[in-house]
Amino acid sequence: TLLRAGASCFVEKPVSLAPTEDVTAYAAALEGVGSGAITSVGYMFRYASVFERVRAEIAASETGRVLAFLARYNCAYAAIDHPFWWREDKSGGPIVEQATHFVDLSRFLAGEPVLASLTGVCLPADDPTGAGALCDIPPVVDEAAIPRELRLP
């Protein structure tokens, strides 16, 4: 592979939609390569000059660390016209496709997390409460063309 040959790689996400165990095993194998190659994923926010300034402000602050992180996309939900983003089987759905940018940004600004526990909930489109239904999926995305079991809010 390129990494074993010592070539640094810049890759796009999703890096993988494989089960966690497979990805963990692959990551462990890469760490053992020892070629000194750098692998980076295309998370765009960390390359914006504004976040370099934010990082400098954090470092110069009284605590020198981030105490809380809140991120939000401010965009017209109905204008997101990329069918790929809405399909679990293609991109992992909106969490993998878009929300991971915030995970990367929080790590870039605040460093690696120290977690005692982590809980996540994903409501499928057919959740009986209706909470997982997309109320305003863009008209350019034919929701009926996405198999029900592969729809994610």
From TrEMBL:
Domain Oxidoreductase putative C-terminal: 46-153
SUPFAM superfamilies per UniProt: Glyceraldehyde-3-phosphate dehydrogenase-like, C-terminal domain, NAD(P)-binding Rossmann-fold domains
Domain of life of the native organism: Eukaryota
One Pfam family matching this protein: ox_reductase_C
The protein's name: Oxidoreductase putative C-terminal domain-containing protein
Organism: Bicosoecida sp. CB-2014
Taxonomic placement: Eukaryota, Sar, Stramenopiles, Bigyra, Opalozoa
